[in-house]
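Quiz preparation item.
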């Protein structure tokens, strides 16, 4: 079994100024998205480098505001009502992917209106960029020592100090599993799928199905948030409940897009 390296969440401290690894992971996410976005823009006639930079500004706002608000509403509203200043301590974690997705969806809608594109056109462009942020975000969770899996005797378990049990136990490093599945694997799937022309919404739909499925699966090994526990029938977690509509919506978008594309080709 592995031992958790207990990484200092503060990467650099200069007097009272502290730079946290969690924030650095977000910067790397946007940098990676910008670089790959520019690579994609060169292959799509309707996109250019300036549009990619503008889009990432919209997306960054959506991720930060939506992710924070989503976590507060979905996972720990009582704590933030009791201590409102916690809202600003983003370096401690507390970002919801599902909330961030809603924020990004609104950002894409506004960007689509500005550039006179359809929402699906923008979403299909953005979808392969998102796993980059998912990967770096999960690494940030690992460095922060948060979102651990269940206690296990499996060789995959990692020795980590549990403040509740006040002892060292072995837990699944589900942050790393999510970094692998939601980050690397999903990125490869979307890059390969997006190489060929697809029906509008298909790439975005595949992202929703892929992320939702991977997240739903990992939740079986991941510990639910302590303040929520298990929800539906004392079996499913909040992450699984929020991922289920993602899968269904993604499938619906892909089916609708394929049907529209077939009808368009039939009229041509």
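Solution:
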């Amino acid at each position: 079994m592995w031992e958790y390296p207990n990484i200092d969440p503060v990467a650099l401290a200069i007097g009272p100024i502290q730079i946290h690894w969690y924030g650095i992971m977000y910067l790397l996410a946007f940098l990676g998205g910008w670089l790959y976005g520019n690579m994609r823009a060169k292959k799509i006639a309707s996109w250019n480098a300036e549009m990619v930079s503008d889009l990432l500004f919209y997306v960054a706002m959506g991720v930060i505001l939506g992710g924070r608000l989503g976590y507060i509403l979905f996972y720990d509203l009582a704590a933030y009502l009791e201590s409102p200043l916690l809202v600003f301590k983003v370096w401690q974690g507390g970002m919801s992917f599902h909330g961030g997705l809603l924020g990004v969806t609104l950002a894409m809608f506004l960007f689509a209106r500005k550039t006179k594109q359809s929402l699906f056109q923008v979403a299909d462009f953005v979808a392969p960029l998102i796993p980059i942020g998912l990967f770096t975000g999960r690494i940030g969770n690992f460095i922060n020592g948060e979102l651990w899996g269940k206690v296990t005797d499996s060789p995959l378990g990692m020795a980590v100090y549990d403040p509740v049990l006040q002892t060292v136990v072995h837990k699944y490093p589900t942050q790393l599993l999510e970094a692998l599945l939601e980050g690397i694997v999903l990125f490869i799937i979307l890059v390969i799928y997006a190489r060929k022309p697809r029906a509008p919404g298909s790439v975005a739909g595949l992202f929703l199905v892929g992320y939702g499925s991977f997240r739903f699966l990992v939740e079986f090994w991941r510990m639910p948030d302590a303040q929520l526990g298990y929800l539906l029938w004392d079996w499913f977690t909040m992450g699984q409940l929020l991922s289920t509509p993602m899968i269904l919506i993604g499938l619906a978008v892909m089916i609708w897009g394929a049907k529209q594309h077939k009808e368009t080709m039939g009229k041509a």
